[in-house]
Design goal:
The complex is a heterodimer of chains A (323) and B (203).
Chain A: H1 7-10, H2 12-15, H3 30-56, H4 58-70, E1 80-86, E2 88-93, E3 96-101, E4 106-108, E5 111-115, E6 120-125, E7 130-133, E8 138-141, E9 150-155, E10 157-161, E11 171-175, E12 178-182, E13 186-191, E14 198-204, E15 206-211, E16 214-219, E17 223-225, H5 265-283, H6 287-300, H7 307-321
Parallel strand pairs in A: 9-11
Antiparallel strand pairs in A: 1-4, 1-6, 2-3, 2-5, 5-8, 6-7, 7-10, 8-9, 10-13, 11-12, 12-15, 13-14, 14-17, 15-16
Chain B: H1 15-26, H2 31-51, H3 57-72, H4 83-109, H5 118-121, H6 129-146, H7 149-159, H8 165-172, H9 176-202
Helix pairs in contact in B: 1-2, 2-3, 2-4, 3-4, 4-6, 4-7, 7-9, 8-9
Amino acid sequence: MSQPPEVHELFNVMKERKLEIEGDAYLVDRQRVLSGMAAARNASKRRRNLQRVLYFAAAAAVLLTGGFWRWGGGTSGAALEVEVTLGTATQVNASGRAALTVKQPVHIVDGELATARDSKATLRAKGGLRVELESQTRVAVASPLAGGQRIRLFSGLIRCSVPHQNAGTAFQVATPDATIVDLGTVFTVSINEANHATEVAVEEGEVMVRYASGQAVVHAPNRWTSASQVAAVPGSVAPPLPAAAPSSVSSAPKRMLQPRPEPGADNLDEEAQLLRQGLAAEHQGHLQEAVVLLSRLLQEHPHSMLAPDARAALARVQARAQP
Amino acid sequence: MLSVVAPEAPASLTQTQAELLRGVLRGDPGADAALYETLYPIVAHALQKVLHQPPDYEDLVQAAFERIVRSLQKPSALEIENLGAWASAIAVRVALDGLRARIRERAVFNRDAGSADIAQAVPEREFEPQVNARRELNWLQGELAAMNPEQAEALMLHHVLGLELPEIASLTHVSESAAQKRLSRGHLELKRRAEKRAKGRVR
């Protein structure tokens, strides 16, 4: 019988991790973090003030809080109204899972929401933000960061109508490989089912898209897809990437709550081979070849267990390839 | 009721650190940026050790710094003795929350996979070292997320950050004996899970 390792040995995989700060995969928007820190401090102060009020006037404060909550304007400003406009949807949060049906608006603060086949739902926030979920779409709503609202899109398609806001309260949509920052416009974000790429279509105004190796401003009526950003080294000989499905932003995905492909043994062989070849090419100084191999791994197996390693290696290679 | 923390930094902090924290508490312009520059490598290292390369890395960094600011406003901030260890502990808590959210998401939305250990679904073969490391990491992350949070936190503070009992007790605001209890129970629990996994592999 194989012996389990000692407990301290189990942590070697974490202990031996070296810090990476420079890589593209570890880009952090410093200004956003600083805004979040200021917002957190102010929120704490407001919370303390509110607690004092509660202490001296509990009954009145409870009524006041209830009133704010009902109208989605509590101190956090986080409550979103969810309305299923067609079919059904499922809401999941820390307290469990609930089915939502047509014309039964509910308020959520955070958690996840998924629409069923042939179903649609609308999220509305204080201030005029409106997000329409198409059929078979799954999103997560996070507590507001830096005073803004943030939605994570896992699959499907959402259409966002955002009133004009300042930079400190920008609305953001995060996908597995990009973050779309909006300051007041109408745009659509979808996950391409075939290649898992993020696709953005701007109908009005402009958005900023941040991705692993940079950022881009997309003006109406243009589109952007992450599929064309993976092998972004100048002079790269990367193979043609799968094109984003034309007009896919207006077509609904085919399956609901589809589990991510598990890294099966067959794939893992191929994935490991691609990673090994990519790292060998990097080691030998063949950076363009390394980009091609690592990009291929990420394109063909975006949910591979090796994808994080490939992304880190790709970012490293791209940094080395910069003139 | 919470009281406003007097901006008095403990003597064990350096003068510069104490000034910095006072500035952050007052909301001085530039203090947040200086604190970020000071603590980012520490926070990043703790997050990367536990999560390696999470897709929501930027969100986690932001969450860690927001929690740092909120924690500074609590009375317990007066007990900070080692700014780096304190920030690391907060980052580890954020990482642990991130792990639990990831596991919860997988359990709810991926019923086919359920709580199945991805690592065990892959047959033993001669794979790249990265594959094995990733498999070990996935298993450990899953088990830590499923364990009692206080025990998991104690284990990570000890084994990942290398902190000893007095520091763990101070950072988690419990007595040394309570910290010792959490750590030893966490050890036993993780060992039990590792043994269960080893038996499963033999079958």
